[in-house]
Amino acid sequence: YVVHQGDEFLAVRGIARFGDMAWAGDELAIDLAMVAPQRGAIEVIGIAEPSAVLIDGDAIPQVADVWAEDGPGWRWHEEGYDLEIRVAEFGEHTIEVRGVDRLPYTGPPVVDEIAFGFDATREGWQAANDLAPPSVEAGQMVLMTTGGDPFLTRPGLSAPGTAEDVLVIRMSVTGGEVGSVFWGTVDSPGYSPQREIAFSVVPDGEMHEVRVPVGEDPAWAGHTITSLRVDPTGGEGGIEIRIDSITVER
Fold first, then answer.
1. How far apart are CA 108 and CA 98, in angstroms?
2. What is the value of pTM for the model shown?
3. Integer Cα distance of 2 and 238 in angstroms
4. Are 108 and 156 within 8 A, CB to CB?
């Protein structure tokens, strides 16, 4: 969905049933309904960080991860100028966003294939949490954990998901035991435990191939994948991660 103010526009997407939308001055109002069993978040794309977000007249908190909360919350992502709003309750709601200012999309180029080799750059992948800024060395993305919940993300995808897909991550880690993959789709943007698959890692510092059968998940197959999140390991800071490639085989 697109809401206009003069020649300017904002994009709105999510799993909600959307009603009226109005953008006037620095305020955006969105009427929507969350229909059981679907409950989750909506996104407003191309927006600067707002001053406040309200649901049904009540201000909701700004949080580090909208999916880690039981209640409502919002998070603004500097990469891509994306506002994520979690709506915790079923039913009809009015969302108000205050302090609205449009910013152009400056995220990584949109690609329709999941095939990242890191030959010279990070190829749009971003260290989103508990990771030091990554570098690229000898065709590998190199990261160091700074806390117990490290993950990196790649927005800007428009890749068809099929039942035959296997996400293949070739990487090495020096610590931890378990990682996971999350994904967002056109119908269900953002990251949720409903779109997560865990995998085991071998913390020996050697390169290993992790194969994640994403196509077996009905939340992947038949959907357009718009973003990926990889939690390569966990446990503590000071773990070195080297990622040689992230691809989909089918």
1. 27
2. 0.65
3. 43
4. yes
